[in-house]
Amino acid sequence: MDYTTLKELYPETELSALPFLDQETFRIAYKNKWIHIPKKSLTDKEWQLLTLLKQEIEPSSFPVSDSKWSDYLEGKRDIPPKTTKNIRLTQLYLKKIDTQFDYSIWIESIRQLFDPVLDVFFITSDTCFIVQDTSALTFSTQEITGMLQTLEDDFSIRSHAYIGQFWTPDKQLNSLLKEEQSIFQQEVTHLHNQVCTLPDVALRYFTKEALSRSLIMTELKHQIETSEDWRELIQALWESQGNVSVASKHLFIHRNTLQYRMDRFNEATGLSLKNMNELLLCYLLII
């Protein structure tokens, strides 16, 4: 597919170095970059047609799954595969995949690390899905990060993961999983950590549209961006829930130095980072 031609057909099409944007798009790899066509610009039939064309031009190096879960998530089945337990979808986005990457070995490695799983499959050449039910072992985000880092070393890639919620396998399941996919695609380029869950990204995802429309928030954000140190200061205090001692250790500075910076911030902006409501407001300005 040619970018110029697509741009003429869909004027809102963008060419970006990022695989995901802050809106849901149909994306196509193009000369080491990505062509993004906003979903709102496409009809359902156009989306389906572009999907078929994309399958023709992209290398079929990754194994295409014919499993029931894959068919369900792609909309080929109206109801989920029969199960009596709640379902969770974990999404993995892989970067720096080369021609030596072995998809089959990766899938088998994921099956072993996350056992038990209902299914593991790729929906695109860089996005892997893991479907599990409530019999799955419970790992912390730190443990999952360690597991992925081990795989990264073995496969010479980089990855990000979104650990979904457990949902009841009813008629709403597909819509819930689709929304989780949209959330991850829009937030993956903004993640501070390698592994995230809904609580990690909810604040930014569900407030960004309202924030972008607010003149007040735009002006406050401009004030904060006048100093690079303030973004780091707010991030550290937010992650430590306002605990000055913990935040100072994170920043590798003395507690008194941190207190001094907080006072300077208050003088310049009129906002106190010692107050949790005001700290929340400041955090919204930097996410």
TrEMBL record:
Signal sequence extent: none
Domain PucR C-terminal helix-turn-helix: 232-284
Highest taxon in the source lineage: Bacteria
InterPro entries documented for this protein: CdaR-like_regulators, Homeodomain-like_sf, PucR_C-HTH_dom, PucR_C-HTH_sf
Protein name: PucR-like helix-turn-helix protein
Organism: Alkalibacterium olivapovliticus
